[in-house]
Please model this.
Amino acid sequence: MMYMATTNNTYTKDEQDRINAVRRYLNGEKPSKICKNLGRSGRWLYKWVGRHKNAKRGDKRKWFQEHSRAPKNVHKKTDPEIEKLVVNVRKSLVEGETEDTKYRCIGAEEIEFRMDELGYSEKEIPSIPTINRIIKRNKLIKQKRKRYVRCKSKKRYTILNPTKVNEMHQIDIVGPRYIKGYGAISSINMIDVVGNKAHIQQYTSGTMDYVLELLHEYWTKNAIPNYLQMDNGGCFIGDLKHPRHFSRVVRLCLYLGIEPVFIAKSKPWMNGSIESFNDEFEEKLWSRENFKDLEHIQRESKIFLMRHNNRQDWKNRKTTLEKILIRKIPSDFKIDANNLPLMEGKVHFIRRVNKDGKIDVLNEDFDVDKSLAHEYVWATINTKEKHLTVYHREKKADEARLVKTHEYKIDEEVKPFNLKF
Model:
């Protein structure tokens, strides 16, 4: 005789509905009436009638219970030895106590990269989701320190969208940091926005002289970019008082055919690539070691930089990133950075319109439009045409529109750009 469960207060409402529906069906009641009365479908009714009919002897008293929907067989269970390896690699990267592991990141990508270095094949290295699950399962998660909240503006503030290696470099200064018994040290950091390879150097201060030294040195050995993006620090923009002053950094850029770009004031998130790199630099090197002097940090920073750039090469190994036409400063080419002429070219500024509808460009206010108060605009000084143009991109617009043009007189000779490397 087939067992039929009876009403019991320990059942859930769904379980009791199933029991009552099957009982009524077995008593000969019409299925349509049962379904209408319970607000259920015919498919639902026959599912539970079948479950009751086909229940095995040991399951007769729980046929009406919902079955677990979890897969019964895990087809791709991680090999215990590989999981153990991932755990050990993660721990070694976190500790960073050996020459092979210091100054490195600790995330899933870095673990993949490290396993590749150790000689494991692509088939043996788990996927990033699998590595993340192993990290979580073994309680090895570390929370990242957040320096600031990035603005979700979908980049309406800029009209640039670099897609080629060396199309845009971003530069910033970290520091100064004071070493006991030695003095102050600053690090000048630069990164390629698309290829993500970086260059860093430490100095006793973050002056414009050292910025020019780093740029000249790097662009002699590596490609000159189309754009150099930076903040409004005095070591980049120069004079913070007198209007229409072009700094030596700006002059060097124009001399080499580069368009300098200055982000909005006090908005470091606009320099997202270099700021992210600075976070890595700070966490993995800058605040981790007890440096003795300038030579010590310069020596150790080369190891950190090698780790970073090697990882970028590894990440990009399967991609074909398009590159700009490579131009370099010839090694025997002499540049007097203190006596550079002003060349024809463009200098760009991202600025926020104030409540009066004005923006500040090189210590001078320019009218834009009161209706754009608190919005970001893109302003360009064209030294050849001697005008300043202002663009704004509306929400959901593909392109920025021209909103204002100002005459921009320059009280010195502007020379034509004709430099060819």
